[in-house]
Amino acid sequence: MTEMLTLDAFEEASAKVQEVTQKTGLIESPHFSAQTGNKVFFKPENMQRTGAYKVRGAYYKISTLTDEERERGLITASAGNHAQGVAFAASRYGAKATIVMPTTTPLIKVERTQHYGGTAVLHGDVYDEACEYAMQLAEENGYTFIHPFNDPAVATGQGTIAMEIVKELPLVDYILVPIGGGGLATGVSTLAKLLNPHIKVIGIEPANAACMKASLEAGHVVKLPSANTIADGTAVLEPGDKIFPYIQQNLDDIITVEDDELISAFLDMVENHKMIVENSGLLTVAALKHLPFTGKKVVSILSGGNMDVITMSSVIQHGLIQRDRVFTVSTLLPDRPGELVRVAQTIASMNGNVIRLDHNQFVNTNRNEGVELRVTIEAYGTDHKNQIVAALEAAGFRPKLIQAHL
Q1: Strands 200-206 and 253-257, bridge-based pairing
Q2: What ranges make up the beta strands (E) of 52-163?
Q3: Which residues participate in catalysis according to the annotation?
Q4: How many Cβ atoms from other residues are within 10 Å of residue 201's Cβ?
Q5: DSSP character for 381?
């Protein structure tokens, strides 16, 4: 077998993964290019088979196993995307796959894993707890364990993304890559440096699960006490020790982003690119606003698109509220006919759109003191919201902004 993380190994892996991957050509983004002053491209692995890049590492790793190792059955732990990659790749080799997933894994990822032929076992609140249980099952049953990131062969498979980026955009300056445990960042940064040492690779982590940043600062692998982020695919407590040296050598920088920024990035991708990207894949989109340079060719890797519709609806709701495109005001009205109509007419005169009304006559025991009206309104953004509120004030309604709910 070829030694991992060498140029020969990456070339071998690139040829191998083409048996199962779909072409995910770069997509130029005029919107983000204009916003950042860089020439921004997306590598849309959210459009990849199984909905994420993970099929690359899983398929290549399984291809390097012996028949006996595959026949024993495969097992892995995953927050979802690696699960689907292993289940799909295992089915191609006729091997059985057991996948241990955290109990918080979105339903769509569990269902897709089963759809590809994997047996899903839910255990633990975070990836690390699921991984411990998977290793226990592997020992008890003799399964072959396929680690989602702490494996040079898996990282080599993931790194094939860099081969495709450089072939399509030879003069790329920066590649942005999401980091959970570090497998993708290891493969991409190592191969990028082998192909062209001038290419800079920046890892992007959620601020509340930045285990790689903490490890790099400490100079050794560090385990976080918690990983609380909506980017479930990168909610990892501890990076891989086998791949950490490659990260130390080849990763140029790390940027952390807050969960609120991922919500904003989701809306940007839906409205400007008509693309569904899961929260972990949005890390590199949110990071575009943090880049301390302009005039560069930048590729953001969109690592996956497996987001369930419940999460999607929640993110959209919070995003609209965050951008003041939906807001709620409360006001006390005299309890007499026509007041509700006056409020509606005032909002309509400012081109506001009423989404919800809650007219509560019983907020005061003495109704002559006023009844409460709560109105949820759709606006174009902060300026428009302020204009609507000002118009209500001018009409004498004394509106009070409160927490909006769709």
Answers
A1: parallel
A2: 74-77, 97-101, 119-122, 144-145
A3: 54, 303
A4: 23
A5: S
